[in-house]
Sequence to fold (243 residues):
Amino acid sequence: MKRVPTGIPGFDELIEGGIPEGASILVGGGPGAGKTIFAMQYIYEGARSYNEPGLYVTLETGLKDITWNMQSFSWDIKTLQDKNLMKIYRLNLTHSRSAEEIEQQIEKELAIITKMVDSIDAKRLVIDSVTAFGVWIPKRGALRHMIFEFANRLKETGCTTLLTSEIPKENRDNIGYKFSAYGVEEFVADGVVGLYFTPPNRSIFVRKMRGTNHSKSVHAFDIAENGIEIHPKDEMLWGALRQ
Ligand SMILES: Nc1ncnc2c1ncn2[C@@H]1O[C@H](COP(=O)(O)OP(=O)(O)O)[C@@H](O)[C@H]1O
Ligand SMILES: [Mg+2]
Fold:
């Protein structure tokens, strides 16, 4: 099986060298857990260290997060963007009254994403975050259906994909079991990774990774001057994650 190394220091050795090519991975965590940095670093390292083009799709309200992160880690994305190794796209739906209108917009966005993937021959894709779809689709049933369809359609791009999801407070008590906002994200994903921030400790847990003998432990990580760094030998106890 071909694997896609994330390039995030310490992470790939937890998952036998990388994510199975073409898989979709859910990255769940509370606010500030490091989801955006993790996802961004995956695209950045892909472009920088493996010469693999990547598309980063953000659904968050501004591009500020992204630029701030880039600046604070001194990642030079300009050069990578100029070389077509990296692309950032902001997905923005408008509020619509009917389910059909939303569906049409999503269709349009899927077509744009597919076109962008083709234009740089992207191998890596990020959707940050799927939780944000909830802003436009208030009905839970419709939302879950949409996320399911959306994630499945993304698989047609052939990209190895990270989907981020924010774990809401009520689900965060259920450490190690709940990784997403709407509960459907886990089911479309071939892998699930949880990020936790229990001040002052950060930790990471691989809940599932198809076709992979992954680490079953919780590992410490840091956000340092170059981004996320996982300490694979540094295991934590579950109790340390409770907030
Ligand atoms: N340069 C940095 N050095 C150390 N920690 C940082 C740095 N930049 C951001 N952070 C930490 O990362 C957090 C944001 O991470 P982010 O990936 O945006 O979280 P999420 O997407 O899970 O909400 C900040 O709240 C801060 O704690
Ligand atoms: Mg984020």
Notes: The chain is about 35% helix and 25% strand. Residues 20-196 form a domain with the Rossmann fold fold (CATH 3.40.50.300). The two ends are 38 Å apart (CA to CA).
